[in-house]
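Need a sequence for this fold. Nothing fancy.
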């Protein structure tokens, strides 16, 4: 499935070893804004720190267990979109994402998730997609809300983030909801 052409300017591609330094630079240049919401940022202090995760991402993709893809905008790496573990029995998965500060507000993630959702529901025949966001991360929460994901509720103090707990909001989209949304 990867690479996945979202539109003329956006492409999702599996992160591979040759992308390591570019990915590290993206993380490092956006460290302050990413660290506000993502626990793994401090674990990435050099390009070499990405070697084991890139190996895991490759293995997951080969085993049809999701993917971690770079988001390229006009051939420039601007973020990542992850399709987490796929529960094939229940036909469910979840999506995570981040974007460089300079690329935010342009509809890149929204457009990517919309196109990917159509693929997941129509081609992979999944039934449920979830997105979880920190309650106070309003930019991240705006994405599933704009696409039509349903807010299922808030898990109180569900994630320890460096020095405090964050409430986590869970959104979901069902195949039948997507079919109704696309046909209207």
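Here you go.
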């Amino acid at each position: 499935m990867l690479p996945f052409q979202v539109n003329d300017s956006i492409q999702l591609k599996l992160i591979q070893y040759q992308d390591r330094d570019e990915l590290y630079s993206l993380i490092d240049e956006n460290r302050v804004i990413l660290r506000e919401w993502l626990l793994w940022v401090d674990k990435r202090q050099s390009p070499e720190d990405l070697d084991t995760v890139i190996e895991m991402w490759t293995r997951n993709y080969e085993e049809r267990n999701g993917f971690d893809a770079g988001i390229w905008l006009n051939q420039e790496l601007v973020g990542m979109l992850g399709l987490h573990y796929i529960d094939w029995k229940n036909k469910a998965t979840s999506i995570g994402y981040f974007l460089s500060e300079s690329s935010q507000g342009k509809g890149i993630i929204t457009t990517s998730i919309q196109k990917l959702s159509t693929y997941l529901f129509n081609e992979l025949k999944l039934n449920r997609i979830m997105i979880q966001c920190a309650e106070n991360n309003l930019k991240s929460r705006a994405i599933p809300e704009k696409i039509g994901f349903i807010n299922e509720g808030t898990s109180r103090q569900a994630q320890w983030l460096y020095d405090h707990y964050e409430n986590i909001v869970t959104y979901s989209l069902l195949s039948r909801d997507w079919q109704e949304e696309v046909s209207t």
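For context: Residues 4-183 form a domain with the Aminopeptidase fold (CATH 3.40.630.30).
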